[in-house]
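Take a careful look at the sequence and tokenised backbone pasted below. I need to know what the token row says about the fold.
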Amino acid sequence: MVYIHLSKKTANDKVLIEYLDSLEESDKKLVPLIICPGLSETAEEYLDLLEAVLPRRSIILSFRGRGKSDTPDRGYNLTEHVSDIEAVVKQTGISSFHLFSYSRGVSYALGYVERHKEQIQSLIIGDYPPEHRAMPHDWPEDYINNYLIPYNRTANIRPEAVWGIQRESALINLDDMSLSMPVLVGRGKLQESLITDTDLDRYKKMCSNITVKEYFQSGHNLKGTEKKLFYTDVTDFLDTLSEGFN
């Protein structure tokens, strides 16, 4: 079966942000899900998650510099990535939703939660610590030449965006929030996960209602070998919570 999704763009100041929306296939009684992809990921790469959670409405954005969104010359710090989420939320008109995030998208999602905690019914965190990381000076060339080009991903994230992220990124700890909504944290096996035991303790201190799922056949890439299990855990988590919202 081919599922219908809407492809739209919204203006964040002068930057057009693409998002995909399963509105036409959705059950209006279910709380929607907003999906924040990882560093070089696009909205299109999460269509399988959109389908997995149907009939729940899902909205997936491509952050600036990724996918079909615009690539500005500047504007790649945490605040401006958070504003991409804000622009999509405003355009769609939703006021209450679940929030899924993966890898560096976690820092963007946590930045959004810090500003709009009252909107978030639950938070799903995919293998990233509660912080926005500064990127090393030598990172862009290595990332572009040894990952994006060999794996044909320069259309997923433009080199200009990679350089902008490195130039404008700064370390910002995001673990000083107190979160009462249900939180699901997924991490890969310890040696290869970006969530250390110390990071997991940070999440446990932040969150009064936390569920931790570990994927022992995965490293950081939870959407590789164990993607089906990861997505099943996500949908089960959401379906259990939705009983209180219908």
